[in-house]
Structures are given as C-alpha cells and as structure tokens.
Amino acid sequence: MNILNRIGLDETASKDLASRLNVLLAHYSLFYQNVRGYHWNIKGDKFFELHVKFEELYNDLLLKIDEVAERILTLGHQPEHRYSVYTAQSAVKESAEVRDGLQAVRHILEAFRTLIALQREILQLSGEAGDEGTNALMSDYIREQEKSVWMYSAFLGQ
Questions:
Q1: Where in the chain are the domains?
Q2: Partner residues linked to 10 by β-bridges
Q3: How far, in Å, are 61, 67, 121, 122 from residue 128 at the CA level?
Q4: For 31-50, how does the pLDDT look when each residue is reduced to its tens digit (9 = 90+)?
Q5: CATH C-level class of 11-155
Q6: N or C: which end of the chain has fewer CB atoms below 10 A?
C-alpha cells in the first residue's frame, strides 16, 4: 500500500522529486550568482544592452529559486540552502568569465541547456507521480527558457 503525503502524492515519489528539485535548486543558485557577476562586471560595446538583460535574468532566476524551494516544501521535504552542497551538486559551475559580454552569453546558453535537460527529467518524474504542480512549474520553465535560448543565440548570430 502506498503512503501518501499531505497533498495526496506517493511519499516515495515525492521524496525522489524533492531530491531532483534540490539539484535544480543548486543549478539555479550557481547560475543566479554567475549572472549577478556578469551584470556587475560586464564591459565593452554591448555594456548597456547586456547590463539590463543580465539584471532581468537574475531577477527571474531569484523568483525561480524561491518557487523551487517552496515546491520542495509543498512536497513535504526540506530545500537545501548550503552553497557547499550547491557547488557539489550543480552541473552549472562558477564562472570566472565575467567581463566579456559575448562569453557571458555563451555561458548563459550553456546553463540553459543544462537546466532544460534537468527540468525535462523532473517533468517526466512528476508526470509519472501524478504531480501536476511540479509538472506545471517545469513546463513553464522549459517553455520560457527555450525562448531565451533562441533569443540569446540570435544575439550571438547563431
């Protein structure tokens, strides 16, 4: 017999989802800090354009960090908050390339590819668990980020 959590989902599936969401939280946290660095340190002829775009992006990432942490809590589990754990778990690594705007955009595209792949994995798990809340969140993130990939790629002329 399945044990259900407080929102009616299988407890084992919820624990697995919360674990993957904590990895996503780590990815988002490192990505957020990288983008803050790009925003603060960008130089060159694209400064005004990229400075604003990077601020928009890090504000969006901050909202997503909070939403992911709250989803983990909704599933009945604890969101991770330690950067030591984030750096160990995240496939998005700290970036030292913070002055060159084009290099920063390349790093952003790489981070989006990593995030989208993980979110697709979580989307599949949430679908199997009947977790519409996590499913909707991941679907929204994927849709938004696919558009961002297109736009940042266009900026690079790709």
A1: 11-155
A2: 4
A3: 27, 21, 11, 10
A4: 999 999 999 999 998 999 99
A5: mainly alpha
A6: N
